[in-house]
Amino acid sequence: MMTISVLDRTAGALSKSEQPDLSLGLLHDQAGHVDHDLLLCRVNDPELWFAESPSDVECAKALCQDCPVQALCLSGALERREPWGVWGGELFLQGVVIPRKRPRGRPRKNEAAA
Ligand code: SF4
Predict the structure, then answer these.
(1) pLDDT digits 0-9 by tens, 37-53
(2) Which atom of ligand 1 is nearest to the CA of 85?
(3) Residue nearest to atom 8 of ligand 1 (CA)
(4) 4Fe-4S Wbl-type domain spans which residues (predicted)?
């Protein structure tokens, strides 16, 4: 006897109402429950989290590491596909985490040899 199995692609998927809320509103709500001084993007110049300079970006990423809402901040930014900035200790560009911001301008001709 032959058996035909059907893959139910909806099985196990969460409905819209069951999906975790990873909105900025939730992040703000959670951040409201922690000591304001621990949210370093709020007590420092927020421009650092949207900096052009690679060294400033690395500084912002480092400051996020001890943030009490880092995991929520990162997962929300991934979900929202943040177009720009440092979120949850990672640099986002057009919705994708990029490991390291490159300096402006063309690479040096001898960069590979350096
Ligand atoms: S993890 Fe998010 S909330 Fe925390 S300092 Fe970094 S950008 Fe700000």
Answers:
(1) 889 999 999 999 999 99
(2) 7
(3) 41
(4) 40-97
